[in-house]
Amino acid sequence: MNSILGSIPQIPLAHWIDNFVDWLVQFTGFFNAITNFIGSINNAFQWVFDLIPIWLFIVLVLALTYYINRDKQNWGLLIFEFLGLLMIWNLNFWRDMTQTLTLVLTSSLIALVIGIPLGILMAKSHTAEVILKPILDFMQTMPAFVYLIPAVALFGIGMVPGIVASVIFAMPPTVRMTNMGIREVPDELIEAADSFGSTEWQKLFKVELPIAKTSLMAGVNQSMMLSLSMVVIASMIGAMGLGTKVYFAVGRNDAGNGFAAGLAIVVLAIILDRLTQSLTRTRRKH
Amino acid sequence: MSTKKSTKVEVNNLTKIFGKHINKAKELSRQGKDKAEILKETGATVGVDRANFKIYDGEIFVIMGLSGSGKSTLVRMINRLIEPTEGEVLIDGENLMKIDKKQLREVRRKKMSMVFQNFGLLPNRTILENAEYGLEIQGVDKATREQKAKEALDTVGISGYNDEYPDQLSGGMQQRVGLARALANDPEILLMDEAFSALDPLNRTDMQDQLLDIQERLHKTIIFISHDLNEALKIGDRIMIMKDAKVIQTGTPEDILTHPANEYVEEFIENVDRSKVLTASNVMIRPTIVNIEKAGPRLALKMMKDSEVSTAYVVDSRRNLLGIVDANDVIRLVREKNGDLTSIVQTKVPTTDEDTPISELMDDISQTSIPYAVINDKKQLRGIIVRGAVLGALAGNEVSDFE
Predict the structure, then answer these.
(1) Which residue does chain B place closest to A212, by CA atoms?
(2) Burial class (CB within 10 angstroms; exposed 0-12, middle 13-18, buried 19+) of A172
(3) Where are the transmembrane segments (chain A) (predicted)?
């Protein structure tokens, strides 16, 4: 057996992939443009967060929560947010927290802008679904660390490669849930839209997307949580934030600071999760 | 029943085959094989097999059949929600198969609207916004479309729920909204796909009555799909019966009941055919009776006015039928100041006895303009039979205005 296996030459898979990445690297101009673009979104978020005084930021988060839940107030969440954010301030993690928030928001935004149209395409075209499904599976199951290597080669060190890796890892749920939401719109509603003479765009914006909204928002929520789970990994290639604190604590075998930073991530995760979930609920005029 | 009928919708050779091997299926169908044989040989399902019919302007045309008969496929080919495999649909002489997507949208927006079995209302929109949908996609401005939608909601008798959402309303109410949404476009043709089938029996009857009311005012051309013969008999001006993708018979309710085209139709109507068990006494109604020994022209005229009829039945004190008098003749007598009705009594009145099954009367009833008088064995007048009451009774309604 051994001799048979030994006689088959090893497939140079790693070599091929290296060649492919090397080939990609020659399009420096293109990747620089993307880096600048993503970087400027990231910087814009960060600029805003740095501008707002901490006390005002906390007030704004509480006000936003209050507004989103205006028909069914969740006092527990408000108290949690208040105490949680105070704790982050007190632990001196504020800037790290806003950096992490920036990374999550930027990558979620990009995942949304790319993912929703892809999901729509997938729902409308059988061919697109057949092609995209295995790609999505691949994106989601490939260990996220692996993305860091080409990301560094193409986008350098810092926030941007971290965001790119997060987008790749976090986008699939948005695509999938958009696709599913649109496919699950009852046939009769599609027929109703068609029978009154809707154009394809009218059908999409007036019938399909509004009805798929719950499912679509669940996808956005999942994407956001997945990109938050990337922050520690992204810190390995220089994406600053709470992840960096955890990463350093691991290096120094510093359980105390590691857990403290981890707790701050948990607080941020719970706030983001509850806020996007509240947005998911169908709201009525009265 | 109208004297001049113009054709609104004409369907020629309309065919739909689902699945693969469509050409082979077509070939087999031409050779006279039926749906089951074609499915077995080719795997293709024949939805509708060469349907031909005409629908006249302003009539309610009921397409009837059991599930799988192809009726829903057929109605969806009329607005091309389902693309026909073959054949053509002409609306006002315009061939719908030859127009492009944009023109088709215009036809759907302006000429015909559809009402769905499970209402097809958008759950995220209020009642008013649902009723506005058809106008909204045409780009009608907010004020105009709101006004038209409100009018349509009024027409179907559901105002005051504008800001509710569909799931806050009962099934009957939701379907009224579905109907209002269709009417808001002011279409010439209404396609109603099993529109009342999802409703409970009481609501269904209400909606049928309301549809007839609305039709009286608006005179749309209505294509109504149903699996319920009672419903078809009640609301249809003409009925088309389908079985296994084929059209079996087209005709008025009376035609269908009196001359079923084949055993299938016969069997079909047997389940609901009350004509064999109902007798004259079941369907007769109370006539306006004038006792000639007591009443003169003035009283006769008042009685006829009160009950809004133009004919009264004349009897003697023992209630024996003598004949009928016509309102015009009575008015003449009143003018001439003649106090005796005898001179104007018409004695030629068709009669029947109480136990005659209405299946025997159907033909004669549809041909005579004077309602049948029902008399007992002592020649006493018991009641009269009007055509509407017969059809109503066949359709399962109680004849309510009899003592």
Answers:
(1) B124
(2) buried
(3) 20-39, 51-69, 75-94, 101-124, 144-170, 223-243, 255-275
